[in-house]
Amino acid sequence: MRIAWLRDHPWHVDALAAAHVEAFGALLPDWTLAQAAGELRSHTRACAIPSTLLALDASGDWLGSVSLLQEDHEHIRQYSPWLASLYVRPQARGQGVGAALVARCVAEAAALGVARLYLYCTGTVADWYRRLGWRDHATVVLGPLQVQVMAVDCAGPER
User: How far apart are CA 146 and CA 19, in angstroms?
Assistant: First the structure.
């Protein structure tokens, strides 16, 4: 597995957008496939906010992705920037793909001078992030869901 910038592999945008809408649509009920693809296509720079990273297998097919965004939801703009839209294809789960994407995203944020990075999630996913060193920051209601906002310090003695 290798991690690369989506901007260098734009042929994956449509499939990735479809996976994102299916996985995260409950949080953004009016979000369309065209909007998701447009957002991903706008991530044209590496080592920047916004950007998207892909985990790729040996054949160049995508296994998962994660984005680094300035904002991730209009109702929680007070926290920024964000690790967002972590997604791992079902056939690649349980193989460390998600953890590798999260670690790379945090490292990229640190390289950009970001002191603290945020994410939000629901349910037991928060436990997985806690195991990666993220901590609970706030609980907020977004539409029909209560979500956990989590934070991690990007710059520190261990990085």
Answer: 22
How far from 62 is each of 9, 14, 40, 103, CA to CA, in Å? 9, 12, 14, 17
Amino acid type, 19:
A
* Number of domains composing the chain: 1
Alpha-carbon Rg for the chain, nearest whole angstrom, is 15
- Asked if residue 100 belongs to a domain, the reply is yes
CATH (domain of 53)? 3.40.630.30
Domain assignment of residue 37, yes or no = yes
pLDDT per residue as tens digits for the range 111-155: 999 999 999 888 789 999 999 999 999 888 877 778 889 999 997
Q: In the chain, which ranges are E strands?
A: 2-5, 51-56, 62-69, 82-88, 116-121, 135-142, 145-153
Q: Which of 96, 89, 104, 105 is nearest to 131 (CA)?
A: 96
Token duo for residue 29: 């009920």
With beta carbons less than 8 A apart as the criterion, state whether 37 and 11 touch: no
